[in-house]
Amino acid sequence: MPAQVVNKDLQNERNKCTFNQEEFTLWWVGGEEQLKEKRSRETYFESQPEFQDKVPLHFASHQELYEETIRKATVIFSKVKKLLTDQGKYDAKNYVHFMEALLGSGFIKEGNPLGIHFSMFVPAIMGHASPEQQEQYLGKALNCEIIGSYAQTELGHGTFLRGLETTATFDPQTDEFVINSPTLTSYKWWPGALAQTVNHCVVMAQLYSNGKCYGIHPFMVQVRDSETHMPMPGIDIGDIGDKMGYKGVNNGYLGLKNVRIPRSSMMMKNAKLMRDGTYVKPSSSVLAYGTMVFVRVIIVRNMAQSLAKAATIAVRYSSVRRQSHINPELPEVQVIDHVTQQAKLFPLVAKAIALKLTSDNLWQMYERTTSDLNSGSLDRLPELHAIACCLKVVSTSDTATGVEVCRLACGGHGYLTCANFLNYYSLASAASTYEGENTVLLLQTARFLVKMWNQAVQGKPLMPTVSYLQNYVGKQVQQFPWSDSVPVIISAFQAVVANKLRLACQRIEQRKSKGFTPEEATNFTGLELTQVAEVHGRWFVLQSAYEMFEKACQKATTPLISVMQNLCKLVVYDEALRIRGDLLRFTTMTETDLVKLEQNYEACLMVLRPNAVGIVDAFDYPDFVLGSALGAYDGNVYERLFAEAMKSPLNQEPVNKTFELYLKPLMKSRL
């Protein structure tokens, strides 16, 4: 961090830190090389004059904001590409590394309009295109010679993919597909960058050949001319309007009328259509999950970072802000000294870390499964799909809620745009609905869990993330022996999932016996099923965090081990208190045990208190990435708030023209 005059209270907090922050940071970012690259990249971009806003973009018009964000996005791409090319890391093999460098640093608060190109368009090519098609498109996409979006959601359909209405009908006479949006509700709606940015699009459409529908498949469609950027014939394309957040992402709509593309523009890595219109189905229907699973893995990683940033802002501000007396004989205390404030913020710090560790674990699962797919093994893809679904739900809902808690914890000042909570909240809130609405995703996880439960009942082997269900097969609810140790509490989550799943399956069968169809019985059991799926996701978060904390502690110094162990306890206790009713129901926990759990939770808050600022500092977010007047490293909150207010266009003149136009006539009127 640069040398600054730091707020006295904030500096005192840093002086209390008991562990080596650089050691924590190295662990947090993944090692020395990653930290060096991260800081070098941040220092480089912070020094570039192209990224200095003379007037904050929240004062700009819709059009001005887009034009400025696309300018920044193109500059960022060019500079990141050069940096990685110089390091020999700019190619498809290092694609994820490049994407994190480009999108993960949060250089554009309003959202990067090229983000969808790298987070979905390029992965769609990698996941759906044949080797020949990848040779045709992938290099151009990586170099931004073509810029694309991923058009799946429609005006009338989102998560329910089978209901999509866009059609791609094969014409055997010309060896082409004819793509149409037959209704208003079939217009593609929401794809990022679609409005004015992209010239290509992966369009998901119902494939028709020889009079038969073969379901949803991806097609590469050019939507704008490469030279003039004018819409191609038959293309109706534009902007969907203002949104709560992601204002720079340029979400658009797309209508297609008799748009002809070659048969070779159907992405044929998995399914294929032959010259005579014969359909060759993929080896497994689950192969279509690939791009969506990849995006959900990335979402979990992004949510961890967003929550960590929001917590950084709130913890620093709470250390500077003084409010109320604890002892009337003494001065007002720092807000962070109030236990109620600690209970708001400290669990969120721990949760952000737990989500980041979970995302690391999930990414390892994704890489293993992708490797298996390349070897022809599809066995674990349904398992990855199920866990990615419920983790997307847990991470987005907890981050959206957590950011709002951080905002409220900062009082009125948290409501200001320059606090930057609005940005983090809108990112998490949007992620709760895109790439699968959260309730639907929980039901998808639940469907997998029901299938696994039935396999367990039949004595069949289970996949690793659900193998614990085998311990609870039986017709009766089994109470799990409770103790307050972290591993036992995590196992208690397994007991809750298994017993709630058993009851849900029993209720499905009871409803079927009364004459309901399996689909109706499942619908009526939806509340129980979504609860089961969520607790399963929360178990996975705790298990992942615990294992990775334990692994880190094997190499850490004693002071950092103490901090990590306390963070692990705090997130486990916090999650356990969230489901205390289920624990009382499905374990041997007593009221005395519950009181002890609450006391342990409060003790963790007290232990974390002197290291709170040290931990969020160790997240290592520079001021220009945090983008917050409340959360800057120097803690000069009030000076920064005033400086931000002075940037308002309304403060550039002593009297606004509305005085002569409206106010003065009103005051002088005799009405």
TrEMBL record:
One GO location term (cellular component): peroxisome
InterPro entries tied to this protein: ACOX_C_alpha1 (IPR055060), Acyl-CoA_ox_N (IPR029320), Acyl-CoA_Oxase/DH_mid-dom_sf (IPR046373), Acyl-CoA_oxidase (IPR012258), Acyl-CoA_oxidase_C (IPR002655), AcylCo_DH-like_C (IPR036250), AcylCoA_DH/ox_N_sf (IPR037069), AcylCoA_DH/oxidase_NM_dom_sf (IPR009100)
Keyword vocabulary terms for this entry: FAD, Fatty acid metabolism, Flavoprotein, Lipid metabolism, Oxidoreductase, Peroxisome
Annotated Acyl-CoA oxidase C-terminal domain residues: 487-668
GO biological process terms on file: fatty acid beta-oxidation using acyl-CoA oxidase; lipid homeostasis
CC cofactor: FAD
UniProt GO MF annotations: acyl-CoA oxidase activity; FAD binding; fatty acid binding
Acyl-coenzyme A oxidase N-terminal domain boundaries: 20-147
Compartments, record wording: Peroxisome
Pathway note: Lipid metabolism; peroxisomal fatty acid beta-oxidation
UniProt key word Flavoprotein: yes
Domain Acyl-CoA oxidase C-alpha1 positions: 289-450
Family: Belongs to the acyl-CoA oxidase family.
Cited PANTHER family: ELECTRON TRANSPORT OXIDOREDUCTASE, PEROXISOMAL ACYL-COENZYME A OXIDASE 1
Name of the protein in its database record: Acyl-coenzyme A oxidase
Organism: Aedes aegypti
Gene: 5566281
